[in-house]
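User: Teach me something about this protein's shape.
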Amino acid sequence: MKKMMVITNIPTPYRVPFFNSLNDLLYKVGVELIVVFGARSYSRRHWEVSERSFKFKYVFLESRELGINSGESASFSYVGLFRLMYRYSPDVVVFGGFGVCAVKSIVYAKLFFKKTYVWSGEIHNKHRRVSWVRKAYRRLIGLLVSGGVAYGSTAKKYLEDICINRKSISIAKNSVDVEYFLSTPLKEPNERRILYVGNLERLKRVDLIIKSVEVLARKNVNFTLDLVGDGSARQELESYVDSNGLSSMVNFHGFIQKEDLPKFYESASLFMFPSEYDIWGLVVVESLASGVPVIASEHPGCVAELISSGENGFIVDFNNSNQVAQKVEELLGDSDKLRQFKLNARRTAVESCSLEKMAEGFLCLV
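Assistant: First, the predicted structure itself:
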């Protein structure tokens, strides 16, 4: 039986269901899946993930956290990874990102004539400054791997630009367990509520949502903004809300576990995604599956793939608060249009975002 080893950082509520689906698909074609986690968690992650939900073979490494790269991610040492690869002797190694595990995987593959693929959602982003050293390093990775697995077409373009042959890149559209969120009742909420789910970090640009709230408040538009998440910018955001008299319109809920998210999506009329940082945006998939239209920044990779402006949401410049406010008014003020947008949002998730389709993007690697 062939073996595929997938190396990633930590188990998360959105990755475990995917690995279960991938395991089922690979088993049908006679391939064994082994998932290697760099660690059980890291300092800024508070998810509760039960190993009882794992339906695949897995190993935890006792990695040391090398340092936080951002509010979103961390780097690990992947101590013991090379020994583990030698022990299991996988035919195909898929590693997430371009860190330490990339180097160790490539060395293993070159020594033992195995295939390696980088699994990445990285995109070109004008808001990030990238050194020539990083560019050169990633091009070297691109030249040494067998191919890549991209989150979407924008990420595929990035992999092509770091010298990976386009014919060796498959797309596994990054997703969540949409079935879980499809159970959210598709109905018009009793109250008009706008939702944001995610970390409260500066590059997430939640401040731009609040700027739009100010514009809408001046127009006496009646709604509530629910901010679900926590982070280093929370105190600053709360102070701004208080000092500008917006406390009655903005609720800070803090970090919420996955099982408690559906009730927020169920009560939401709209979802806001202003990030200048995210390479993808799984909360957008959650929102669409829940039947909640999305007003999104153009920058994250998922937006071009999933948001059809004027059908299931709007793509806007969040620096233009008046434009954002106008789109909010357009939907909140027209219940028929909002209802149609909700139907379109859910249809997008059903047609484009299943975990089974995501897993099929890995099938061609074996």
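Now, about its shape. The domain at 2-172 is CATH 3.40.50.2000 (Rossmann fold). Residues 335-352 form the longest helix (18 residues). If you'd like, I can walk through any region in more detail.
User: That's plenty for now, thanks!
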